[in-house]
Request: fold
Amino acid sequence: MSMSGQPVIILPEGTQRYVGKDAQRLNILAARIVAETIRTTLGPKGMDKMLVDSLGDIVITNDGA
Reply:
């Protein structure tokens, strides 16, 4: 039995879903923001970054990982 057809996507209540050009534009914007954030970690004089997650845990990194 083949189960082909439309995929079921479950999103939290209040979430907006973008498609087409709007989704592409937002993905490009997100990539630019990430690139701008990690730009100073690159090169011989790269600086460290302090990352704080939603629980308040802190990680110091110089590679964005």
